[in-house]
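Final report, results section. Input specification for complex C-07:
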Amino acid sequence: MFILDSLLIGSLRFVLDKVIAAAETEAEDDSALREQLLEAQMRLELGEISEEQFAAIERDVLIAIREIKGRQQGPISMSPDDKITGVDIQSYADEDQ
Amino acid sequence: MRAVAEAAGGLRVLIVSTDPAHSLGDVFATTLTSTPRRLRPSLDAVELDAPRAFARWLRDHRRPLGEILEHGTWLDREDVDALLDLSVPGVDELMGILEIDRLARGERRAREARQENQALRVLRPSRSYDVIIVDTAPTGHTLRLLSAPETVAAVAGVLGDLQQEHRLIREQLARIGRPEAADRLIAVLADQARETAARLRDVQQTAFVWVTLPEELSRAETGDGIAALERAGITVRDIVVNRVLPDGGSCPTCDRRRADERNVIASIRRRFARGRTIHTVPAAIKEPRGIGALASLARSGAKGLGLRANDTTKPFRASARPAAIRQRPSALRPQPFSGASLLFFGGKGGVGKTTVAATVALRLARADRHRRVLLLSTDPAHSLADLFRSEVGDAARPLPGGPANLAVRELDAAHALEMRRTQFEDALDEIAAAIGVEGASAAIGTSELMRLAPPGIDELFGVLGVVDARADYDVIVVDTAPTGHALRLLEMPQAAREWMQVLLRVLLKYRSLVRPGQLAAELVELSRSIRELIALLRDPETTRFIAVTRAAELPRRETARLLGRLRRLHLAVPAIVVNALTLAPGRCVRCRAVSAAEKRELASLRKACGRRCAIIQTPLSAPPPRGAAALNRWSKSWIEP
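Structure output:
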């Protein structure tokens, strides 16, 4: 059970780390948005989108970037230094026993 | 003239013009095309059409070239086709060198055939030449033409690297040792480059004749040009000083000119006569046209000139202009210079573009001290420093003694490339990564290409120079290279934009493999600037082209063609400056004859110019004006409608 527990906790911890990392990236890193803006600029230069379409994309991207900046300046819910030290697990098998 | 003389001597001669602004047909008083035309039984002439020659070359080699790009990158057929359809910067020099090679090979094959089989001589007479005379573009671009073999070699190297992996697969996995079309193309290009480079430097096979004018600026250009050729391992054995005023009756204008020309020729002899022959060709009142006139000039040219030693030189005075020629100002015509933010000065080599452009730049700067003016020379054979007798370099700087709001710059494309070397190498690395070439800059031989000043570089950096300067200056006065390359400069923004569009499309298409980075951001920025520049070039309020010419038949004919090309490029030409006119002929027989001939040419120019374009006449000045103060004085004697 000990091995199974550590495996379970280990796997879960891995998944949770990934989820947190992705959430952090989305919440704090605006590089994906910047790429989206660059892509729109490229399409504008190529004539694939109109000035109006570009302006709409630019507006959306800037709003999203502003939101990220706003969140970064607000109360910190989890910093990169925070660590997960343990997880409570309740298993149905345990209850049956 | 040389061609006619050689042909008369019994040799089979082909004369080829590689200047994109051809004058060879004008000189022979006939129409020439890119197919050799027989002018005499032993003389053929051809004017290369580089873009068409490139299209033909590409048609012949498109399949192997496309295969190399497809094998060596992850570009698909659609991408490759888009790349191959782009216009190539420096096409005149690249195709010039390949065409000369093709013609020279034809000559050698025919010569070998003559030795083996007399019948072949009859079968292929048109490919058999004893001498090929190449009439090149003016100085700066001739130097680029001569470096073209190295560029072709570098291109062959890049193609070889791209083909390498595919070649290994064929040889080692499929066990196919036979070279395919792509391998043959790479080998042919490498051979052509090597052989042409060697032929240009072989004094047994190639003679380089430097043609100049008896003027200070031309003498300075001769010094720079010959030094550059010698650095490239090319020997100049002959110098021809053209249009030298012959002996004649005494007259203040002619005497001043003779004295001035004599000083220049003496200086050329002092500096360049060792190991070289200096020839002088007399100035004719009517420029020689047609084989008869050229043959007679060739006969008389050998005699030498025997210049007069009469030196009664007095400084030029603006009052020499007769008041009678003054014209009434026309309310209909727009002011040619004021209000523009981009002024191009262009015309045939040796007509005085630099002097006129510099005079206008000085005038604009003096007229409004708050107006920031940049005088930018994009001709690789610069004359601004010689004109101002002051140091001018690649960085814009104020002119000592000139107005503080005027900066001058002689674009040094090789230096500008060196300055941006890291940026360009990073960009090429990113492009290489984006098209799936491993090892990036090493594989595509960027360092080799960076070392060269490849053909087309002057026009590319000329455009970048204008783009960069727009933020810092209110008016940019561009002193362009002679006609053919001035047009290439004006075509460059469109060509550059097409290249950037293809690159942007490729970066977008493969963005899931390689995320667009710094390069894409820079391309977007540059593409936007160039899009603005293209719009600016078509706006007659902001951009004007001033054609500079002389009132003589050959420059006048070239000017008429230039006006046609500028119209097609939608560029406004509000004025033609007709330079160095004999406005006060006095009683001198020669001056009167010259003045009468000039008036006829002026009338033709007026017709070519049209109603919306002004003719500005500038007087011949002996010695020519040098330095800001002299240019300013000279400017006051211009006749402007």
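Residues 151 and 454 of chain B are 6 Å apart (CA to CA). DSSP finds 23 helices and 15 strands in chain B. This concludes the modelling results for the funded period.
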